[in-house]
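Workshop exercise sheet. Pairs work together: one partner reads the sequence aloud, the other fills in the structure field after running the prediction. Swap roles for the next sheet.
Pair: D.N. / O.F.
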Amino acid sequence: MLLSVHHGTTYHYAEPARRVIQLLRVTPASFTGQAVLDWRIDVDRDAGLREGRDGYGNITHMLYLDSPIRSLAISVAGRVLTENRAGIVQGLPHDLPPEVFLRATAHTASGPAIAGLAGWFAAERGSAIARLHGLAGRLYETMRFDTGATEVETQAEEALAAGHGVCQDFAHIFIAAARAAGTPARYVSGHLFRRDGAHFQEAGHAWAEAWVEDLGWVAFDPLNGISTDDAYVRVACGLDYRDAAPIAGARSGGGGEQLAVEVRVSESAAQGQSQSQE
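Structure field:
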């Protein structure tokens, strides 16, 4: 599938911000099943932008602004050709040993609720891949999607006990339960093409990857109860949300802040035209 992605982030400050530093993890890499055809980052200010990679292999850009500003707009856009590989992730240009992703974090720490889910997962019969599909399916069936139920710092234990959350929470719960049962798992941020026609979204998407012997990393989206397919664009990964957040940073001054995010993921017109001619 040929997907077009636009990710816009706008900040408005109550007072002039004297200096702004942002870490951007908004650029996807090409690997087996995902080919980045073109990608660009635009900033509406005279800013420095330095490309690099972090410890997880994610493409990063450091954004520097040294003059006072009252607003800042960052626009990211590009086209990605995707292939349905049933969630199997291969050919990443940079990666770490799977054992790294057994380490718990504050977001994925195990409490009574996570321990109970991990115990159920460990006791399930069948192959490793089947049990992971079962874990994703269980969260899909028992958890409720609720954009007003949690916050960025909500932990997996809290969200599972409450029974609702957003895609970030579903991913953290899946990761926490898998790790507690001895399966390496990691957090992934990216974009999702909505086949129901909802191309405009208020944020990007998040899911999880788990390590399966003889297969490698396999991606699961517990919010939708499936493995990822050609509707997904993988951007960044890490131990939890903090390692893969699209934008993080700091500023001097500025007072209060208003943040607006808009994401648009659509099928490319060229792809649609080629299909209509078949």
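Discussion prompt: Residues 271-278 have pLDDT under 50 and may be disordered. What would you look at next?
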